[in-house]
Write a structure and sequence with these properties.
By secondary structure, the chain is of the alpha/beta class. The protein has helices at about 15-25, 35-45, 65-75; strands spanning about 5-10, 30-35, 50-55. It is globular.
């Protein structure tokens, strides 16, 4: 039996999130998207992900800061 990998995409551009979700649709991935770093951190508080992919240039919190915070929430 194959396992579904859970991926979190974080980007402030909705079109990019839509494109990424479309690429991974129909494969063995469960895709979750967040429109901001704050939303991504909120999702991490409730759910575990196997992979996090983040935009680096986002308002309020850049990708590096988001990933550092995500390591604290979900090591």
């Amino acid at each position: 039996m194959s396992q579904t990998s859970k991926i979190l995409f974080v980007d402030d551009e909705a079109q990019m999130l839509t494109a990424l979700a479309r690429v991974f649709r129909g494969r063995q991935f469960e895709v979750t998207t967040a429109n901001s770093a704050k939303e991504g951190l909120s999702l991490l508080a409730d759910k575990q992900f196997d992979v996090i992919i983040s935009d680096m240039r986002m308002p309020e919190m850049d990708g590096a800061h988001f990933l550092a915070e995500s390591c604290i929430l979900a090591p």
